[in-house]
Specification:
Two copies of one chain form a homodimer. Chain A has 336 residues and is an alpha/beta fold. Chain A folds into two domains: 138 residues, Rossmann fold (3-Layer(aba) Sandwich), CATH 3.40.50.720; 185 residues, Dihydrodipicolinate Reductase, domain 2, CATH 3.30.360.10. Chain A has eight helices and 16 strands. In chain A, helix 1 crosses helix 8, helix 3 runs parallel beside helix 5 and helix 3 packs across helix 8. Chain A is globular. Chains A and B meet through strand 9, helix 4, strand 10, strand 11 and strand 13 of A and strand 9, helix 4, strand 10, strand 11 and strand 13 of B. Chains A, B: Keywords: Amino-acid biosynthesis, Diaminopimelate biosynthesis, Lysine biosynthesis, Methionine biosynthesis, NADP, Oxidoreductase, Threonine biosynthesis.
Chain lengths: 336, 336
Amino acid sequence: MSNQVRVAILGATGAVGTELINLLIERKFPLKDLKLLASPRSAGKKVTFQDQTLEIEAVDDNSFDDVDIVLASAGGSTSKQWAEKIVAAGAVMIDNSSAFRMNPDVPLVVPEINPNDVHNHKGIIANPNCTTILMGVAIYPLHQIQPIKRVVVSTYQSASGAGARAMEEVKTQSEAILKGENPQPEILPYPLAFNLFPHNSPLMDNGYCEEEMKMVNETRKIFGDDDIRITATCVRVPVLRAHSEAVNIEFAQPFPLNKARDIIAQAPGVKLVEDWQNNYFPMPMDATGKDEVLVGRIRQDLSNPNSIELWLCGDQIRKGAALNAVQIAELLVHDN
Amino acid sequence: MSNQVRVAILGATGAVGTELINLLIERKFPLKDLKLLASPRSAGKKVTFQDQTLEIEAVDDNSFDDVDIVLASAGGSTSKQWAEKIVAAGAVMIDNSSAFRMNPDVPLVVPEINPNDVHNHKGIIANPNCTTILMGVAIYPLHQIQPIKRVVVSTYQSASGAGARAMEEVKTQSEAILKGENPQPEILPYPLAFNLFPHNSPLMDNGYCEEEMKMVNETRKIFGDDDIRITATCVRVPVLRAHSEAVNIEFAQPFPLNKARDIIAQAPGVKLVEDWQNNYFPMPMDATGKDEVLVGRIRQDLSNPNSIELWLCGDQIRKGAALNAVQIAELLVHDN
């Protein structure tokens, strides 16, 4: 792929789409051309990009003819609708939806974990689920030293995972509740302000929700290890943008704590945040807007000599979605 | 103890103290006399109790002379300061603080679990930690059928655990943040509105905080089983009043899901809340003001055939504190 790349963002007006534009600028992505695509409803809207004003175009059959990379972030059905056209036009689709993630022909990539998998694409590369990316970046460095046997994870997921409108709903709902009103939720199924609830993705017959099964299945695919046993409880909390996770990690034998801490401190995409004196550890407010996954509270599990506990926070829109997609695009550009 | 009981509430102006008064009325506790005690700072304040107006009295050396039961909820140092005087006066102290919980001479009681332990007191009975009570009520019925080997729990704890002023702080902080301001926390160490953080109780050398070690040690004492292995991650979330917990429970062999569900549905102090069609499970907003611990999302753990997952919410001020204390007082009255 040439060093001057023609990029299209499909779903340019959403929370992730907006962040994709910011990241392409911030990271000086070698852009030749940027095309912002969205549904006809959003067409004509203007977006300022550096010193230019770009107009959102309605996506159509010819949108991808002069494009090298499509960053797709408009939901699974939109990705499915346009994937064939994108590939036929000779572009590579980096898809933020779950539509193709478990397809054996589609690499599922976290650049800090399995960068080489990008080269095995047949036109589509999938960006993993947000909670999966954040956990993977934090625990893969440990897995490389001693294979992880089992993970028990509980998540604390922000409203941003449900999109910009859900973030707005939490704010307006909070305002209304503080005024003594009893607002009805419109975007999320239940009130999230001053409340929380198990993740609202569809439930499987096994009692897990889709979000939890993504953590189970996608982690295995990204790590290239089908033996890791994972159980997850995913929960939405009234936080706007960054996700948190409490992760219990079991190995075949004890993992020395100091070693774990050293590895985490040096791992790519991770920042060790531990101030034991001040009881200060990763918090969503500190992870917001950051590229790194903040990891801390690394402890020996008192209930199992072979397990350790850790706590992490990461920006759901950035590393959990847009940043990871742009990093994949960078791999495509730099490795060719 | 006679059926007409003289009760004093020590710490009558706090969040739990206020709820204690409500519960004594609601549950028609056989009161002969109610004395409301607090620090000299709060003395003279008036509280309406049914058709009477009661005045808060400053606690002093003679406060307990004509009292049968003292419900203490003014913090550990106050409990330690007055315990000897209370016992010397012939009253029984039901202490909501952590001061005496692990003292081998002090029963630690959850009436649904170990009601008979109340009779072994030497003047003091301890009320367990809130998260410990809520988890215990939910999982003890399973433990009775098949002994629990290990628990991995993550908590989602409301502001009320840090008292009425912390609840107020979350509200004023939310208001300020919604106005675009950047408020500094005063009661809690870090901003909790639209944020969350690992529990702010003091950290032990093993990396666990006090709140987490309470779940480990108190559960063992209440269950009368020192073999249960427990690990906990306690987290404060921007919810006002009810706590939630994601609990992974390991047995020596598989626990049939339908059996678990039947047991939970019939257990005292527990309400099974599971609407799989509507993805509706326990939420803090529904647990607020309720006596029962709401339990749901009972699932087979995919990572271990001998483990199940469950999710619970309970009112921290009610069953997590005041209600449990009043239930202990009721046991003292009815069993004598």
